[in-house]
From TrEMBL:
InterPro entries xrefs: AMP-bd_C, AMP-bd_C_sf, AMP-binding_CS, AMP-dep_synth/lig_dom, ANL_N_sf
GO molecular function: acetate-CoA ligase activity; ATP binding
Species lineage: Bacteria, Bacillati, Actinomycetota, Actinomycetes, Micrococcales
Superkingdom, natural source: Bacteria
GO BP: acetyl-CoA biosynthetic process
UniProt keywords, alphabetically: Acetylation, ATP-binding, Ligase, Nucleotide-binding
Entry's EC annotation: 6.2.1.1
Residue ranges constituting the AMP-binding enzyme C-terminal domain according to the UniProt record: 497-575
Protein name from the UniProt record: acetate--CoA ligase
Keyword Acetylation among UniProt keywords: yes
Pfam families recorded: AMP-binding (PF00501), AMP-binding_C (PF13193)
Limits of the AMP-dependent synthetase/ligase domain: 65-447
Gene3D superfamilies tied to this protein: 3.30.300.30, N-terminal domain of ligase-like (3.40.50.12780)
Amino acid sequence: MEASTPSSTRWPAIAKDLASFPVRPNLTDYDEAVAAFSWDDARGALDGLPGGGVNIAHEAVDRHAASALAGHEALRFVRADGSTSSLTYADLSERTGRFASVLRGLGVQRGERVFSLLGRMPALYVAVLGTLKHGAVFCPLFSAFGPEPVRQRLQLGSGRVLVTTRALYRRKVAPIRDDLPELRQVLLVDADGEPEPGTLDLAALLAESPPYGGIAATGPEDMALLHFTSGTTGRPKGAIHVHDAVTAHYATGRFALDLHPDDVYWCTADPGWVTGTSYGIIAPLVHGVTAVVDEEEMDADRWYRILAEQRVTVWYTAPTALRMLMKAGAERAAAHDLSALRFVASVGEPLNPEVVVWGEEAFGHPVHDNWWQTETGGIMISNYPAMQIRPGSMGRPLPGIVAAIVARDTVGAPVQHDGEVELVSDPDATGELALRPGWPSMFRGYLNEEERYRTCFVGGWYLTGDLARRDADGYFWFVGRGDDVIKSSGHLIGPFEVESCLLEHEAVAEAGVIGVPDPVAGEVVKAFVELKPGVEASDALRLEIIGFARKRLGAAVAPRLLDFTTALPKTRSGKILRRLLKARELGLPEGDTSTLEAGR
Ligand code: AMP
């Protein structure tokens, strides 16, 4: 169904010509694919464990290692100097077996949590898959986190083992180690025989471990991964994902990323965030393709060089990075041979229509936006290679996914009648994006927070917390967050976590934190701070407080901007009204202020 462009965008739709594709897309007719799809069929494309059950590491690694793909390159790491090192599926199987064997030797039990605090290096990928092989649960932490987010997540997740480097351990873990009584072993990937108090040398343990032999007989509902995400209030939430999620990683890799056997695929996300695990590790390996991993940080020329030199065919990246490339100019791309590239996708934040279109100029392909979140575990809404793109739209739900727009009342709660939520039927009317539960990669809980999990589901729908609309032809359009959570450079940041940290500074009495628009990062974190009586505001103090927050939270989470104020808007019950803070900052209408404390 190819309908006209809705009036809501001035960007013309981008039509596709099937004949021009170098390989036939996996999804050629959307309606047909949706009608024909079943999760059981998708499961049928996987192996399952010999004795029954399912294990992600078996589907991603071992079954390929036992096939003609054994010698095929699974992971290709691009080092700082542009040189590469590779692991074949056979190598990966052997190494992950040894890692699993180390965990067994340490007495790690099924379901116990193994954390990582590592950059994108081979040891990280081996640790993720080796942990799954052993039936333990993996929780990756972003290596740019400061000690505070690391402490909170290790505590909340009852981390039993941590895999890290000596430098990260010294800077971020050693100072808080006493707060982590459940953390029994810290494995250093770069100990080089030099003892570091309180840690073990992973290389030495791997060298003396026997091959694992077999794989843990996990069931589809056994916990496999724990990904922390942030909410508006309270502590970070540990979203639980199970081994059956691999069914969704397989299906979405097929339809939304259009993976084909000989692809060289590059996902630029860090595994510290869910995209880097679901689509930087699991989906490509399940498809038996070669996944490129850049060990370095983003840089326009470096990235174009990687696309060209590694002959990347499918590229999955993020709006902030694309905006940075756009800023650097399309002529930078023209200097490189991007002829291998056949599909470009993006996720994580709103993707500006101009970037979608600019992709055609720079890469020879428009950018295909898709939408999902930590809780969904995999892509839910997507633009497909063979389907018309409406620039600015997130696309249409994946086969197997039912999405809808739920009406909200004036305080943002879903409108309900007799236990049923009211679905918005008007095309283009805004409401909360909701999904019908039941897809395999759906989170199965927030660790130890049953109530917080339960409240995500109303009237048989999972409420995503995002505002969106659906046009008459079923394309979904992102409108905004329904809560106060901040998205900066694709990273979800809970304002409460930042406010709590600021309050620890001796000069700070109150703090309110919001996201303010930024042309490249989407949003940047801005703090409004009330000082304690008698403390003078000054530029030096502003810098000191920002520095204090950066040290504790890490640069990715700490506020970039800080203003002093004497009147944070609060409700009569004392809750900071971030919505109002934001409206005032941006000069927008203040909306309903009936709960506002007098004089604010
Ligand atoms: P996370 O759980 O960190 O992956 O963040 C998920 C959130 O990122 C979603 O709930 C959205 O608010 C935002 N997001 C993800 N993908 C998109 C997209 N394609 N367009 C707009 N926002 C997005």
